[in-house]
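Lecture 7 notes: from sequence to structure.

We start with a single chain of 468 residues. Read the sequence below before looking at the structure.
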Amino acid sequence: MYTHTHTHTHTHTQGVSDYPFKRVLFCNIGDCQAMGQRPMTFVRQLVAACLDPTTLLNSQLYPEDVRKRAQEIVASNKGSMGCYSDSRGIELIRRHVADFIGRRDNISCNWKNVYLENGGSDGIKTLLFMCMAEHNQWGEDTFTYHRKAEKTGILIPIPQYPLYTATISEMNAHQISYLVDEDDNWSIDVSKLPQLVKEAREHCQPRVMVVINPGNPTGQNLPLENMKEIVRFCHKEGLLLFSDEVYQENIWEEDVEFQSFRKIIHSMGLENDFQLASFNSTSKGHIGECGMRGGYMEVMGLDPELMKELYKICSTKLCPNTPGQVVTDVMVNPPQPGDPSYELFDQERRDILQALKRKAELVYTRMNEIPGVRCNRIQGAMYAFPRITIPEEAWEDARKENMELDTYYCLEFLRQKGVCVVPGSGFGQKKGTWHFRTTILPSEEDLEDMLERFKDFHTSFLHKYHKP
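Now the structure, written as tokens:
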């Protein structure tokens, strides 16, 4: 799909296109600034000051709080951002992450359990690597370290972010798929999980359960009781819970705040007998710095020998990139009231999040006005995952191009209307259902355009393959 999109874009820029649209609308990826989101002023000033302290720290070009923060960060990394940091990240920033987590959950966090990473994906892959049977194994009932040869089983949601399926395949682990329930706002039916684990034990040792909340691609925000059910299940089965929380600031429901699994585990009194890894990223939220590659993971309850192993794995990567660490510092330690940069930062932040909230409602409302399209409310994250009616009669044309039915549908959407979305088969979906993922990141004007193009396309597609 990506290749086809860029082919169409190239022909337009070369002036040789005969496609029935003026430009391609990219709705396929959560790349905030590629979709028009402006960088946060404080973020860019701080990164620049850290990278060029000789010039910028001795001038009045940037506000005092930028210069002071840059001096602290540079000093904490041997006087230059060109130096390697600790392989787990700059200590000062790790401490700021721990403070942020403590404030968020109202429960203190040990900074030594925080690891800075090159984005959320890097942390996820690092910890999955540690969990692979070819490298490390644990006891049947606890995460006590010892070595033996056995595949590791990873429970992942369907639909899911393809990072997980790709990494599981790359590392030769065993995928255990569980469906999230579209008819119940993409919640997780925990009652079905024990049987999945029982059946999987014939092929592997299940050790990890992945939960993406808020959801990608599904846009749900799991209710509190559902999260507690997941915690009970993981505790009973002795599973390490991977909590992918990179969209924790992207909550669009009124009067709803993000709830971390960490906070819930503590509220249930299980903090001393539970294994958890939580992930966050500077690519999402209001920061939206996808290319800077910043983020962190916090681990809880791992065996001390595993912590040593994790340190070794981090050491092989030398260190996270230092500009990304600076952006992470802003994410967890933004300007405060009274700081010179606060008012502008707060205004930029509110503008970004309020626009995203409006766009989430716009996409949800307009999608559900189209016959043959059903879209759950976008409770969080940056995506809609509408369910679409595709006539079976379209299968013949899809097979001619050796494609899944929804892939053919999405490619026709691109060919006819110039809109790039991602077919649901790329994320996984319940058998017999078809979806696509679209981001809500484009401008409101472009989203209006996209939705109008989608309505026209879907109506004509149904008409073309309508069986009299």
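The first strand starts at residue 25 and ends at 26. Keep this in mind for problem set 3.
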